[in-house]
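hey m, so remember when u said the tokens were messed up on ur end? i reran from scratch. heres the input so u can diff it against urs
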Amino acid sequence: MGVKYFFSDKTDGNLAYHVGDIKENVDKNRQKLALKYDYKNEDLCYMNQIHSANVVVVDENSPKYIDNCDALVTNKKNLPLMVMVADCIPILMFDEVKGVIAAIHAGRNSTFLKISEATSKKMIEDFSCKTENIKVIMGPSIQKCCYEVNDELKNIVEKSFGKEFVFGNNIDLQGINKKLLENLGIKNIDISSICTKCSNKPFFSYRKEKNTGRFAGVITFK
């Protein structure tokens, strides 16, 4: 059947256990999501995301909760991978030729640490994926229209990635990740135009609401 992926929204409820929600509510939301998108909730692999560049390869024998990482990669069928966000970029990658998928949490720190590049290299080096076969989907996230940072962070972007990703005190994380991937030779990149902060679309946004839930990007190979 190939690769299946989606991004949830507020109508699917909060999917994170670490934001003060009642565990039973999160359990129900995750189960409903699995039924909605036709995968087994007990097979779902997700992360304790720490804003790092740590990439972990998982298989059917791995724990379902992977600690201390921000990207998951697998070549196993029916092993859904989930990334949770509320402004950070949920990046899903796949190579249908090799049957390899990845889920990435690309917030500011992870982007600065080049996590999308690290994940791509893991797919290439560990699974012999070819750049021309890797497809990338960046889901709804805070965009350059709203992502304002201080002068120190703005200067980091200018020096490390280029002035083209700085707009006043706003920065373009999607553009940085796109450049990192294109530098590897990956060209098939789709970027959502939805800004989680200002679009009024039903997505959780930490910058807009502070005390908020998390939506998810989920990918599986069937």
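this time it looks ok to me. The chain has a mean pLDDT of 97. if urs says something different then somethings off w ur setup not the seq
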